[in-house]
Design a protein that fits this description.
Strand order of the largest sheet: 1-4
CATH architecture: 2-Layer Sandwich
Structural class: alpha+beta
Shape: globular
Bound molecules: iron/sulfur cluster
CATH class: Alpha Beta
Length: about 60
């Protein structure tokens, strides 16, 4: 299981996390991403790695 957090202060709403891991991430009306948590999807690791502004924090639990 992974605990997933998006830092809304720094998220620029590029949508990559939603693209690589749509079951977990979605963009809100304010243009920021939100994440379901906790989840089993391994794609959260790819999303974390690829976030251009390092706004995703994933912890294995
Ligand atoms: S990849 Fe990062 S900057 Fe882009 S929407 Fe997701 S959290 Fe925000």
């Amino acid at each position: 299981m992974f605990k997933v957090k998006v830092n809304e202060e720094t998220c620029i709403g590029c949508g990559n996390c939603e693209h690589v891991c749509p079951k977990v991430f979605s963009l809100k009306n304010n243009g920021k991403a939100k994440a379901k948590s906790p989840v089993n999807e391994k794609c959260v690791l790819k999303a974390e790695k690829e976030c251009p502004v390092k706004s995703i924090e994933v912890k294995k639990i």
